[in-house]
Design brief:
This protein is mainly beta and about 350 residues long. The protein contains one helix and 29 strands. It folds into two domains: about 1-110, no CATH class; about 120-355, no CATH class. The N and C termini lie far apart (about 55 Å). The model has no long low-confidence stretch (mean pLDDT about 90). InterPro entries: DUF4803 (IPR032062).
Length: about 350
């Protein structure tokens, strides 16, 4: 979603001038200098800074994921991990324009486009046991995962037929197909059908949600709670003896409405400090978030990766149990380690059968 870029200013202002609340677009290149040799920023600039007047830049050949492999400044500072450059390094030096001494600024670019998959579906994923198109199928949610279809990230559910006593018919397990759509499709509305991440709206809430005793999980969805993505679960009554599931009319959507602006126990941020690219972290990832927290998608560490990668990553692994069982809830959490971007992942909460045991 965000990536760094070297830009030319207008030479009359310092680098921080291009940052702040009044976002600006990169200026045109002067006399075909270095900025004409790289993809420009067609979005907004922020966090612009001056590092040094002269540098050598290794432009990446993997232009779908990054602009630079590394940047080495004359003062000895290097952004990114220096290695043999697949292209010849490009000298990027300051210059004079009339009476002004001009240098490049290092900025973060927030640009939507074909190389930035920043969309999240807001459509509900409902087990077919409460879906009006599959009456009396008695199917409940048994698994959960993030998938990306048409550049949109969806929560996908697995469902299966519930049996008397709370067992699940293993032969009926199936991942419910995603109903695909594109942000540009007619009738598809931003904020209703999908959320597009921007610099101001790039947070996802981290929660664990459970339904009331005697209910089971029958659906999930992401909603917008202010500028945050926020999880909701669908909870439906279930008769453990007969194995019969209640209807959609008897179900309820459950969420956590807490926000960072709450007066009592406000939602707090999981702050990423100098985050390395998650797949390059050396320590094992562990859960480091709790209920009533949130995390912002941001750029990787400037020093170690030249801010070329969006973190945290989305964990696309399936969350399902073997053997399958009833679920009562679901959640979203962050796992990582020190100085690591980590992963945002889904979780499930299993049904508590102990409530049906005789004392």
């Amino acid at each position: 979603m965000t990536i760094s870029i070297l830009i030319q200013g207008n030479c009359r202002e310092d680098c921080p001038y291009y940052s702040g609340q009044a976002f600006v677009r990169a200026h045109r290149c002067y006399q075909g200098l270095f900025c004409a040799q790289q993809p420009g920023c067609n979005g907004r600039l922020f966090d612009c800074r001056f590092v040094d007047a002269d540098s050598n830049v290794c432009l990446s050949t993997n232009t779908t994921e990054r602009k630079y492999d590394w940047i080495e400044y004359k003062n000895g500072k290097t952004l990114g991990k220096k290695k043999p450059c697949s292209r010849n390094p490009t000298a990027v030096n300051s210059w004079w324009r009339f009476l002004y001494h001009c240098s490049y600024c290092f900025c973060i670019c927030d640009e939507q486009g074909p190389k930035s998959d920043r969309y999240f579906s807001l459509h509900s994923a409902i087990a077919r046991g409460v879906d009006k198109d599959h009456p009396n199928s008695n199917r409940v949610v048994t698994g959960l995962r993030f998938v990306k279809v048409n550049r949109i990230i969806h929560l996908q559910i697995q469902d299966g037929v519930a049996l008397p006593g709370g067992a699940i018919n293993v032969s009926t397990l199936e991942w419910v197909p995603i109903q695909p759509f594109k942000p540009s499709d007619p009738g598809i509305i931003r904020g209703v059908d999908f959320h597009m991440m921007t610099w101001e709206e790039r947070s996802i809430d981290l929660d664990t949600l459970s339904g009331p005793e005697g209910n089971v999980l029958t659906g999930v969805r992401l909603r917008l709670l202010g500028p945050h993505l926020n999880l909701e679960i669908l909870s439906t009554p279930f008769n453990i003896t007969s194995g019969q599931l209640g209807s959609l009319n008897s179900s309820e959507w459950i969420g956590n409405d807490n926000t960072p602006a709450a007066v009592q126990k406000p939602r707090t941020e999981v702050v990423l400090i100098k985050p390395e690219v998650p797949t390059k972290c050396h320590r094992k990832s562990t859960i480091d978030s709790n209920k009533d927290q949130f995390i912002k998608f941001t750029h990787s560490d400037i020093d170690s990766d030249a801010a070329q990668t969006t973190v945290p990553y989305i964990d696309s692994q399936s969350v399902e149990l073997n053997p399958p069982t009833l679920l009562i809830g679901a959640g979203v959490y962050h796992k990582g380690s020190i100085n690591c971007g980590g992963f945002v992942a889904p979780k499930v909460v299993t049904y508590d059968f102990s409530q049906h045991l005789s004392p």
